[in-house]
Amino acid sequence: MKRWSATVCPRWREGWFAAGCRDLGHNIDWWEANWAHRAYLEPLLDAHTQIGPMATLLMALGLGAKEAGESLLAADALVATIQQGRMNGAMLGQALAEAASSGAIKLSRWSKQLTRVSQTGLSVAGALFDALEILFASGHAHGAADVHKLIELQLQLAHLTQRSLTEPRAVENLRGVVAGGKTKRVRDALLAM
């Protein structure tokens, strides 16, 4: 039924993606099995689907989903939308910041999927670098217990893309992350680039 509903207005699906954000967001930790939520993510793979704020937020939520099918589908959609030029790092960064502001997302899940996605090409890695810089600049991630996973990923992306942080708020927020041991070394290496 949900797949059929997605065909009602194929040119403008922001309302559909907003409904997906609601349903997926309420079950991000997979409290109850609901296989139909994948139907919200599937239209993102269509090269003719326009990507707006709700579609991007749905991808961010999907990347943080506990259910593997949802998170893998969101990762595939992320690669497709970036490679096809339908989405960029700034759009993804805004969605990551918005999703992280809820506190419901486990950053280690994002790290797992984004690490996988980053291996698909340099253009995708560059978009992810931009997105994570926007997320760090927002200040919504630095208080999370597993933020070190995203800091490690950002260092890997910096080496891969030969880029460094340019957003002053991102640098300031990363300096404010309470870190010790490996996380401190990784953070300091990222800030030194």
Brief sketch in words of this structure:
The protein has 193 residues and is mainly α. The protein has eleven helices and no strands.
Could you please describe the fold and organization of this structure?
This protein is an all-alpha fold and 193 residues long. The protein has one domain (2-192). It is 64% helix and 0% strand. The protein contains eleven helices and no strands. The chain has helices at residues 2-5, 14-25, 38-41, 53-63, 68-83, 89-100, 107-118, 122-138, 147-161, 168-175, 181-192. Helix 4 (53-63) crosses helix 5 (68-83) and helix 8 crosses helix 9 (147-161). The radius of gyration is 16 Å and the shape is globular. The N and C termini lie far apart (50 Å). The mean pLDDT is 89.
List keywords for this structure.
193 residues; mainly alpha; globular
- Largest sheet data: none
N-to-C CA distance: 50 Å
Q: In DSSP terms, counting alpha (H) and pi (I) runs of 4 or more, how many helices?
A: 11
User: Percent range for helical residues?
Assistant: 55-70%
Outline, from the CA principal axes? globular
Strand tally, please? 0
Helix/strand-derived class? mainly alpha
Give the DSSP E fraction (strand runs of 2 or more residues): under 5%
Rg calculated over all Cα atoms: 16 Å
Map the helices and strands.
Layout: H1 2-5, H2 14-25, H3 38-41, H4 53-63, H5 68-83, H6 89-100, H7 107-118, H8 122-138, H9 147-161, H10 168-175, H11 181-192
